[in-house]
Amino acid sequence: MMKQLPSPDAPLKIGTRGSPLALWQAHEVRRSLMVAFDLPEAAFEIVVIKVTGDQILDKALKEIGGKGLFTREIEEALLDGGIDIAVHSMKDMPTVQPEGLILDCYLPREDVRDAFVSPNVARLADLPEGSVVGSSSLRRRAQLRLRRPDLRLVEFRGNVQTRMKKLEDGVAVATFLAMAGLNRLGMAHVARSAIAPEEMLPAVAQGAIGVERRISDDRVAAMLAAIHDRDTGLRLGAERAFLKRLDGSCETPIAGLAEITGGTIRLRGEILRPDGSESITGEKTGLIDEAPALGEALADELLARAPKGFFDWR
After folding, report:
1. In this structure, are 84 and 215 located in the same domain?
2. Does residue 64 surpass a pLDDT of 50?
3. Among the options 54, 84, 92, 217, which is catalytic?
4. What domain range includes position 257?
């Protein structure tokens, strides 16, 4: 038996954002650890941390700092010892962690697809010309401009509930959410249709939950190893290496998806101009132990095919 397991007198502190989806994810990590080590709920404490990205909702992410806005305060609490682990939506995570922290635990991945959400329209293709669509994602906005340049796009930030309220208020006639989040919140019925990756490649790491820890914390490392999903880790190893090589951030329209069949991993990737005027796609297949190298190779290939000035808008 592992020594120094958490207890009601000395609970393991789990840091998270405060949105309903973030709390669901933190509770799922807690549930997984409870089952793995036969521990009571009281052996864990959920610590809600306010992050900048959740407090500034009237500006695009690229205007206020990108992906770190959803993680900075949580990671500071982890480094300071205020929490023992941090639970993140992996699509929000920068590809480099602060010194002293590591991400090496992932729960089984959910549905990776984007959900098309609209009160009155069933599919993206059915939207009337000139329809107003809300999205805060540069990737989705670029992909939409590529496929439907006639649409009018408006900024649409906030959690799932906030965005659904904006649709009800008529701010837009449609929006996009992650199927994973809707499934986790018991709201899958909200999706009018799920968009296949062949039609719209998802964000890197979409649908994955990651648990971050201090590198020096051996007790936590051993606990998290017991709930880590190997296939999700391999898939994200390829996708995040692809993103890192491209210097991906919330200011960069990049999509990527890795899938495993037996001992083989297939990685598809896409880079886009933000105005949707150009898209460069590619894919590579290799052995699963080559996952990060596969991601780097695909990134290099797409960059080599990109014309000069492809990323000048940054």
Report:
1. yes
2. no
3. 92
4. 241-305
Residues 6 or more apart whose Cβ sits within 8 Å of residue 124? 116, 144, 147, 148, 174, 193, 195
Asked whether residue 220 falls in the same domain as residue 245, the answer is no
Burial call 125-148: b when 16+ CB within 10 Å, e when fewer: eebeeebbbbbbbbbbbbbbbbeb
Question: How many structural domains compose the chain?
Answer: 3
204 close to 89: Cβ distance less than 8 angstroms: no
Residue 167 CA to residue 162 CA, distance in Å, equals 9
Domain-embedded: residue 85 = yes
**275 vs 248: CA distance, rounded Å:** 17
Residue 1 confidence class, pLDDT cut points 50, 70, 90: very low
Q: pLDDT of 18-41, one tens digit each?
A: 999 999 999 999 999 999 999 999
* Under 8 Å between Cβ of 177 and 155: no
- Name residues whose C-beta falls within 8 Å of residue 23's C-beta, 6 or more positions apart in sequence: 16, 46, 48
Mean per-residue pLDDT, 221-226: 98
Catalytic status, residue 169? no
Residue 288 gets which letter from DSSP?
G
- Amino acid identity of 160? V
- Residue 84's identity, in one-letter code, is D
Highest mean pLDDT among 41-45, 57-61, 62-66, 71-75: 41-45
Cβ atoms 135, 61 nearer than 8 A: no
3-state secondary structure of 151: coil
